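Incident log entry.

Two folding requests arrived from the same account within the same minute. Monitoring flagged them as a possible duplicate submission, but the sequences differ. Recording both here for audit purposes.

Request one:
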Amino acid sequence: MSTKHEQIVKYIESLPIGTKISVRQVAKALHVSEGTAYRAIKEAESQGLVSSMDRIGTVRIERQQKKNIERLTFAEVVNIVDGTVLGGRDGLHKTLHKFVIGAMQLEAATRYIEPGSLMIVGNRELVQKMSLEHGAAVLITGGFEASEEVQQLANDQHLPIISCTYDTFTTAAMINRAIYDRLIKKDILFVEDMLVNQQLAVIERGKKVRDYLAMVERTGHARLPVVDDDGRLVGILTARDVAEAHPNDDIEPLMSRQVHVVSPKTPIASAAHKMVWEGIELLPVVTNRKLVGVVSRQDVIKALQLMNRQPQVGETVEGMVIAGFEEVWNEDKSLSLVGDVSAQMTGAVGTLAMGPLTTLIEHSAVLCVQRNRKVDMVVDNVTLYFMKPMAVDTRIEVRARLLDFGRRFAKVDVEVYSGAEQMAKALLTTQMLER
């Protein structure tokens, strides 16, 4: 029979996505104390069934699969950018699939928008309306508000429209950083990742030794978890335990009651360490004392080998900016990044924005030091002397030249050219990156 705690978690899991949940509501619905309801809601949150959102409350959400962990909900975006929800609150639980920077013509923007997108845009009402009509949420930068017509459209479409005070590039960088942080977590392999479609071999506590031997012959597993009638782990039985027993003996007196266990959220590396340290071959996986799976040494070794072969994924905003630029090593030992100003790198008036320009300048400076001195450096100061407007599709060269190099610092001069015309100039100082 399931406990009240388990009944509450199952009740929460049965609620429709987007349902608001409160401790008082759950306690009243299931006739339990508010303390029991609170603890069960926290357990549901750890399982990814609900999410606590500032200024909104606790909401039933779709459980995110491991492959989709890099995705955020729109409610989480609100918290990341410290934003204000202007409309479409009913859609805050929905998942963000990608974001689009709206620094382009209206016709061009329509090609990038699809349901589940987030359009990051300034005070451009036509783009805001078009995005909502195409199934995309809207994040308005610069502290601008939305018209009543746009807010009503957001409510009708159940898509949030959010306002924040940051500029477009900073906002995109903050969201991208949050996604990248999740990708780092995604690269961590947990025990639960090994339990998919696992055929679990167990034996009940009231069985005989002959039942154990039959189970071993049928499954090929000599180490079997022992469970009670409710599926709770009570021990583990091995071939050594029954070596001198009669086939009609009960297994319960023979089993080991002191069992090392792990939870589904235990990292594989931690499980491997426990196995080596304790000298054990099998680890039962439990949730609220209930057995949900087992991991063996062979499982752990295979998982660690797979993890080491996986490519590191995740694209940063810096990577998006420099992706179209080619690195050129000059004869005077300066380094150049050559490429075109894309629409994603421009501001509201269609010229290269300060954020992408600074990214290119810093990246060229760091590369220049690395190529000259074979050390890793980090920029600690940037002085931009001047900057001329650089229109979209303009081909530019960002040229970095090493001026001075000490034991722990370097100075780099960076100049930006469009053809023969100098468009920007900066001086950077860097420090050695401590590992």
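Request two (distinct sequence, not a duplicate):
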Amino acid sequence: MKPANLLLEQTGTTIFTLMSALAVQHGALNLGQGFPDTEGPADIVEQAALALGDHRNQYPPLTGTPELKSAVAAANKRFYGLDIDPVSGVCVTSGATEALTACLIALLNPGDEAILIEPLYDTYLPVVKLLGAIPKLVRLEPPSWELPRAELAAAFSPRTKLLLLNSPMNPTGKVFTPDELSFIAGLLETHDSYAICDEVYEHLVFAGARHIPLMALPGMFDRCLRIGSAGKTFSLTGWKVGYVSGPARLIGLVAKAHQNLTFTTAPNLQRAVAYGLGKEDAYFSTLAAELQARRDLLRQGLEAIGFKTLATDGSYFITADFSGLGFDGDDVAFCRVITEQAGVTAIPVSAFYAGPAPRQFVRFAFCKQPALLEQAIARLKGWIASPPLTRGA
């Protein structure tokens, strides 16, 4: 038989699938997967249910229902002062992962270079490669995750088509600073390049940090595509409703890619998300405050039992260094052992790198109920206090 797609054939099962299956097998508390363990707002769910009965269940418009497109444009103006045309400047997608793929398809030709920042979400690299583009990787280093300006500048070339920017960032929890964004904007202008901005955690930013879309900086509007996620904003990750905002010229290309991917998204969910985006400011501030409290609970618990934790200014995740626990093994082995022996699952941070990576860091998700986080800490504490032989790799 002739080979199928070689890149996909050579791609193994993701670490997320493996660790989740292992968690189920051992009855572990799964702090690996990044989704809340509570339902989203009841009024938004009710709106989705009501919309099912309004006799508008056939194909909605390709780029999204008018209600949701208008709500996305209004949210861009409300939160960031961005003027987005609700008709030509928004494309609704079946989740942010599809939005990301559609944006990459819209901008990349075979042979183009795309700059990606490590550690990175695991979808970025395969899609760039599948499109025949050339990834150029720039690495942030723990524990500060500061932008390496010289290395980033060196990654640009005449063949650079785009930079993919994730802020707030998964897995690091980094929120890029105004100064870092300004530096990135300067490079994009100098090299006449675009930016795809994965901003799905835009409303999950904690005290002391502020999310600023790159698109909002001078000269950046026509160079940026900005991705948002109803799943993250409303704790309804299974709905898979995403949206891309940007200049009409680029959104038109995203829509053509979207047409050949999923074509459209459930209309009742779109109308419910439109309702959600119009919720009062208190909803968005409370969402961030509640998550910050859970971050602090997990951070304090981990540090009390011997982990070192890295700063987390946004997202669902905290990175922890287990090197002080006396464990003889790398991060993959550590995650496997704590799942099997402690009954707590995390994700090895090396999974977010394309090449050699630090091996003493794991990612815990804190978007869980406080009682579950406390139980996870108690399980880890008991495991650490157990005889050393049961803690080996």
